């Protein structure tokens, strides 16, 4: 999908449009949430770590309002790059759905001690880091438009 120019970016931030980000939205609950948001939002960004799966999900959703942007919430530099690119392109955010996370399968041979670090880094620290980076966009929109920006965690 082409990049928005300044005029269309300003239009994206009008009171008549809603911009949403859904992490971990290439499958399962995240993909279904993105699908539902497409009925009420102007743009729904599927923020996924795997480019191929994210792009495939956008194609399956079959909507010009669906966008893929790469974001791995277990990687601070990926979070920063995503937040910077999103902020530059859209400048505001109405809805943030933090769905991305990891879970070890019961049969996984990794000892519990080896699972806790990656799980906490991704499911807690990564989610907090992304939210902190995007929260100013949620708050900015609320201030500028006197709307009710939403946080869903």
Question: How would you characterize the overall build of this protein?
Answer:
The protein has 153 residues and is an alpha/beta fold. It is 50% helix and 14% strand. It has helices at 6-12, 28-37, 51-61, 76-90, 112-145, and strands spanning 19-23, 43-48, 66-70, 95-97, 150-152. A five-stranded parallel sheet has the order 3-2-1-4-5, with helices on both faces. α3 links the parallel β2 and β3 (66-70). The longest helix is centred in the last third of the chain and has 34 residues, at 112-145. The relative contact order is 0.17.
Per DSSP E runs of 2 or more residues, the count of β-strands stands at: 5
Beta percentage is 5-15%
Structural class label = alpha/beta
SS summary, helix count:
5
Strand order of the largest sheet: 3-2-1-4-5
Distance between the first and last residues' Cα: 28 Å
Instruction: Give the C-alpha Rg.
Output: 16 Å
Share of helix among residues?
40-55%
Question: Unreliable stretches, pLDDT < 50, 5 or more residues?
Answer: 1-15
Broad shape? globular
């Amino acid at each position: 999908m082409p990049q928005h120019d300044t005029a269309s970016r300003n239009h994206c931030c009008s009171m008549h449009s809603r911009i949403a980000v859904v992490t971990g939205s290439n499958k399962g609950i995240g993909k279904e949430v993105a699908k539902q948001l497409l009925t009420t939002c102007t743009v729904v960004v599927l923020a996924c770590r795997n480019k191929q799966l994210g792009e495939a999900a956008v194609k399956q959703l079959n909507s010009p309002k669906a966008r893929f942007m790469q974001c791995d919430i277990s990687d601070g530099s990926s979070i920063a790059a995503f937040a910077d690119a999103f902020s530059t392109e859209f400048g505001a955010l109405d809805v943030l759905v933090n769905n991305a996370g990891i879970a070890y399968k019961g049969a996984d041979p990794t000892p519990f001690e080896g699972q806790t670090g990656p799980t906490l880094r991704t499911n807690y620290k990564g989610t907090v880091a992304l939210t902190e980076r995007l929260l100013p966009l949620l708050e900015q929109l609320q201030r500028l438009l006197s709307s009710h920006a939403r946080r869903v965690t």
